Amino acid sequence: MRRIIVHALGLLTIFAHCGLALDSTQPAGSYIRTGFTVEDGLPSNVVNAILQTRNGFLWIGTDAGLARFDGRHFTMIDFRGPRSAAQGVVRSLAEGPDGDLWVGTHFGLARIPTTAPGESDRWPSTFHHHGEGKSDEIANLKFTHDGTLWVGTNDGLFRFDHGHFAPVLSGMGVSQIEETSDGHLLVVAGLKFFEWDGARIVEHTELDVPLGAGGHEFFRVVRDHTGAMWFGTGAGVARVSGNSIHRYSPYGVPYAHGALTLIEDRQGNVWVFTKRGLFRCTPTRLEPLALGVSVRSLFSDQDGNLWVGTNGDGLVRFKNRPVRVFTTAEGLPNNIPMTVVARRDGSIWVGNNCGGLSWFDGRHFHTYDEKNGLLNSCVWALAEDGNNDLWVGTWGGGLFRFRKGHFTQYSTPQGLPGDVVRSVITARDGSLWIATVGGLSHMVNGHFRNYSTADGLSSDSVGAVYQDSHGVIWAGTSRGIARMTGDRFAPLSSPQEIFDPRYISLGEGPSGDLYAFSAPKGLSRVEGKQLVGVNTDLDVLSLADFERRDLWFSGGNGIFRLAVSSVRPMAQEGGAPLDYLSVGRADGLSSTQCSIGAPNMAITRDGQLWVATVQGLALLDLRRLPRTNRKPAIFMEEVTVGQKKQPIRKELVLLPGTHHLELKFDSIELASPEKIRFQYRLDGVDPDWLNADATRTAVYTSIPRGAHSFHVRASNSDGVWDRAGIVYNVSQRPYYYETNLFRLLAFLVVATLITSIYFLRLRRIAAQIQSRFEERLTERTRIARELHDTLLQSFHGLIFRFQAAHNLLPARPTEAKQTLESALDDAAQAITEARDAVHELRSSAAVTSDLAACVTALGEELAAHHRTTAANEYSTTFLVEVEGTPQDIHPMLRDEIYRIAGEGLRNAFRHARARRIEVEIRYDERELRVRIRDDGSGIDPSVLSHEGRAGHWGLTGMRERARRIGGEMDVWSELGAGTEVELRIPGSIVYRTYAGRSFRLFRRKTGTSS
After folding, report:
1. What's the longest Cα–Cα distance across the chain?
2. Prediction pTM value
3. 100-115: b or e for each residue (b if 16 or more CB lie within 10 Å)?
């Protein structure tokens, strides 16, 4: 048996003394219990150690390794670093003075450096090993106030100093290391009790007999705040104060009632774990908290919640129950209370939905119904008048007065406008105002004055009536709010029509502001003659003022607390989040839906808030309700880019083209994570703050390039927002063509291109102008040549002829006449030549597109003219031959070729004295060739060598024309053997279809086809 107990103690992790803040006035069984198992992400249901570090996270040591808990999610921790061991059993945890986490495992002692929440997804660790095998297991860790780390192993107690284990007690498995206020250590090892006084370790054996421990049955020893010693032994739990010993029953049966661990919380209560379960020690007895639970570790977090690590049942959290719900178990006739009032004598009265009228005696409810004279038990409204009479409004039975245990009915026979009463109030003058579905009634001394739509009400269905602090009567109907002025009612205007609300009521804050509540509109404030919307998120039904500090609202989805100072600014702050505490099912409510009776909540003088819900009467002790001023610990939990999770860094840099980003955030809240509300916004993407859903994940499919700030803000568990929140930087890298440098380079390239095109255009224009000038100059030169070769030469000859005729007169008149006749013939010839020159200036080959035809026409004209002028001397034969297939020639080139050929023909007809003149036009694939041949007198070689006769421009002009159009001209001539002029122009220049033909030829050569 002893070996079994020793083994159990080896598995049991006893945590360092910490205060628990569970409310000692609550029954132990009333605490709210929440369990977490492997289905919730816990690595193992065997929990050996629990610790909360100063950054707020809860660390869980299990048989399957170490996990971190933020209140919602468990994060598995993998040890990484020199000499790191694989994940295994974690038995103990401790936080060092510097915030580092120390972990006791089966494979040695690990140290994990502290990190800010969300800054690391890797856990670098340093391992220290005491020995091999079993002696390397770490069972207990304890940092004392002087910063010393004490290590308990299965082989004894050690002091860990600068990476070395110094032995203090050897040969025993250590199951407890506890520090007292005077710096001593209380050590339980091998079921024996030892004390370390700083210099030596002493075993206490003097308590064996008084406690019945038999010398080796100590499991736990604690010194409480009064100095009393508590002992958990194999026989049970005992308290020693001075010379007195109190043993808690049952006690004395070895191993059956053994107290395996016990602690003292901040309220002075002692919690003890026995084989029967977990108990709280009252002054006289053990009060069960969780029976049948096998406890391996206990811990109290910073908010006083009790965490229990179990042997197979996972992790369990116990926290205070802010709300106590009364049901039929406490004597209510049913679980649907409709209305509640706190009377002046301090008693609580409840109207039930078809259950009668109940009152509370402090422990149970007692009920009046039909058998007691309440003819209709569907109670929906209650009010107390100045005579201490209780007025009861019912659904279908009208109004009842309850006085000294008797009921008196007032309904439609007595003048009430309707038998369905929704609200009753006692006015300052002692009269009653009754809201019914048939109208509003004013009851004075048993007489009724009824008001309806004829008196200004917007509807006869009146749901609420209220008298404000100024004595003004207000009525809430199914069509809106109306104010009484004189003996009539005037409706308030509203930007949104209220149409048939399921509930409407009115209430006044401590500053005198009047509020209206309706299901479709939420909370509105009366300002002058209109309603101004304040908040539409809260489905509120009514309000109650507590000590002019807090406003409590009942609602369709919970109970809410707002600070008085935060209500008025709600309408002015626009999108700013509202600070409010929400009380719901996690706080003990059976249902968050409150009833719609009037009033449905009441506050007693001692600060107890009673609220009627659809599943029982809820009670909150407002004076004992905890408050926290702690900011929410917000952190980035997870980042997913595309489908890949990224490590959390201080900044996220996205590659170009990222189209899917998920940013998951959370906060550390161990007690009430469901109360935390989040909002987020990404600068440059989200124009307004967005409310986060239950996933707490922001998803973006497109993020503009550049740096952006991702803001997250949240409320704490009391509903107070940290409006600054956290900022996480997100940068979207651009593609290279989206960078400013690329844009600058592109701009420079475009500017350079435009500039180049501009200057190229200027050059082309300048070249065109220059070309035109050159063409004009060339044309003027040609004209000069033509005139020189025709008119000037002819006129110059005529001058000599006329002078000769003048010299012959009067002596030789016959010869003078002949000379004059010859001069006249030469003048006619000069005129003909001048006409030809002018015709040449104005003519073009455009009269026909056929070069051969143009040349033929010109040659025949010259031949005919030659025959008339040289008929008596010789006759000339003119012939044009065409070889090859005629091609389409560019009109400008055709005109130039025509002019060259024309100049050659004129020279032949005028100067060669030829009998045969031929023109050969040859269309080859690669060139156009034009030959002009005659059998005339030929050209003097000296003339050919000097490019023509002095003062004549024929051959020179022909060569210049040929060069200008990209051709070549050659002249062959001998005296008496005739002359040949050959013009050659490449086909790529002269033929229009040369490029297309060349491409077709290329395709034929390469074997391709279209």
Report:
1. 191
2. 0.72
3. bbbbbbbbbbbbbeeb
Please state, as a whole number, how many other Cβ atoms lie within 10 Å of the Cβ of residue 527.
12
Q: Between helices 954-964 and 891-907, what is the axis angle to 10°? A: 160
CA distance 223 to 220: 10
Tell me the CB-side half-sphere exposure of residue 228, using CA atoms within 13 A.
Answer: 16
592 close to 331: Cβ distance less than 8 angstroms: no
Determine which of 325-339, 774-788, 966-980 has the lowest per-residue pLDDT on average: 774-788
pLDDT (mean) for 418-444: 95
Q: What is the DSSP letter of 12?
A: P
DSSP string of 882-908, one letter each residue: EES----B-HHHHHHHHHHHHHHHHHI
DSSP state of 170: E
Tracing tokens 């509003």 back to the chain, one arrives at 440
pLDDT for 282 = 81
Counting every residue written for the chain, the total comes to 1010
Helix and strand numbers, DSSP H then E, in the chain: 12, 72
Q: Report the DSSP pairing between strands 721-732 and 651-654.
A: parallel
Token readout for 530 is: 């209109």
The 10 Å Cβ neighbour count of residue 136 is: 19
User: DSSP string of 487-539?
Assistant: TEEEEPB-SS---S-S-EEEEE-TTS-EEEEETTTEEEEEETTEEEEEESSS-
In what helix (H) or strand (E) does residue 794 lie, and over which residues does it extend?
Answer: helix 793-808
Instruction: Determine contact, residues 399/382, Cβ cutoff 8 Å.
Output: no
Of all helices (H) and strands (E), which one includes residue 318? Answer: strand 315-319
Q: Convert the pLDDT of each residue in 906-946 to its tens digit.
A: 888 888 888 899 999 999 988 999 999 999 888 877 777 65
DSSP, res 733: P
Contact 218, 191 (CB under 8 A): yes
For residues 367 and 355, the answer to whether their CB atoms sit within 8 Å is yes
Expressed in angstroms, the distance from the first to the final Cα of the chain is 103
Report the alpha-carbon distance of residue 543 to residue 614 in Å, rounded. Answer: 18
Average of pLDDT values for 32-50?
Answer: 95
- The structure tokens listed for 540 are 């509120």
Question: Residue-wise over 380-410: b if at least 16 C-beta within 10 A, else e?
Answer: bbbbbbeeeebbbbbbebbbbbbeeeebebb
The confidence score (pLDDT) of residue 578 equals 84
pLDDT in tens, 724-750: 999 999 999 888 887 788 889 999 999
Q: Are strands 295-300 and 286-291 parallel, antiparallel or unpaired?
A: unpaired
Q: What is the C-alpha separation between 921 and 904, in angstroms, rounded? A: 14
The three-state secondary structure class of 4 is helix
Count Cβ atoms below 10 Å from residue 724 Cβ, excluding itself.
10
Two tokens at 207?
A: 């308590």
Give strand pairing partners of 306: 300, 318
Which tokens go with 248? 């808690």
pLDDT in tens, 870-909: 554 677 889 999 999 888 887 778 888 888 888 888 888 8
List b or e across 897-936, with b for residues whose CB sees 16 or more CB atoms inside 10 angstroms: bbbbbbbbbbbbbbbbbbeebbbbbebeeebbbbbbbbbb
Distance CA 166, CA 379 (A): 75
Q: What 3-state DSSP class applies to 390?
A: strand
CA–CA separation, 397 and 159 (whole Å):
80
pLDDT at 383: 96
How far apart CA 49 and CA 307 sit, in angstroms, is: 10
CA nearest to 511, candidates 469, 552, 452: 469
* Token couple for 348: 């609580």
> Exposure pattern of 777-809 as b/e (b: 16+ CB <10 Å)?
eeeeebeebbbebbeeebeeebeebeeebeebe
Lookup: tokens for 131:
């020995």
Cα–Cα distances (Å) from 347 to 236, 604, 746, 848, in that order, read: 44, 9, 85, 127
- Name the percent of the chain lying above pLDDT 90: 40
Cα–Cα distance between 306 and 296 in angstroms, integer? Answer: 13
